Amino acid sequence: MKDEIERLDILIGKILRFGVAISLVLMAVGAVLLVFKNRNAVMPYFNYLSLHSLIQGMLRLQPNAWFMGGMLTLILTPVLRVISSIFVFAQVKDWRYVLITSIVLVILLIAILFGVKAA
Question: What parts of the sequence cross the membrane (predicted)?
Fold first, then answer.
């Protein structure tokens, strides 16, 4: 069990580092695009509140879409951490922590859904 917990710590660390690195790259691309793009052609942030418009904006090389993609990645990184924790706890058959972590995941998803509906 102790080995599994150490493995979980290493996995969580990798997930968090990877999520932050991807977020940083997306925001850096947005910053570079913002420097070289005509400021009148830059769409405002609120145009990228749906996943479809975000992807379209990134394909059109809109700087704010890249910034929003980085922020979305940064926000979803802890959610991925919680999901991976559920699987690891289930693998070691620690059902108490599976239940607790599942409740945390439900709370996170409700907060995200209410946040999206409010926007």
Answer: 15-36, 65-89, 95-116
Range of the domain at 104: 2-118
Given a contact cutoff of 8 angstroms between Cβ atoms, the answer to whether 16 and 81 are in contact is yes
Q: Where are the beta strands (DSSP E) in 1-119?
A: none
* Eight-state DSSP code of residue 44: P
What does the pLDDT look like over 23-57, one tens digit per residue?
Answer: 999 999 999 998 887 777 677 767 777 889 989 99
pLDDT tens per residue across span 76-95 = 998 998 998 898 888 888 89
Radius of gyration of the chain (CA): 18
pTM assigned to the model: 0.77
- The count of domains in the chain is 1
By CB atoms closer than 10 A (0-12, 13-18, 19+), residue 41 is exposed
Q: What is the distance between the terminal CA atoms of the chain, rounded to a whole angstrom?
A: 43
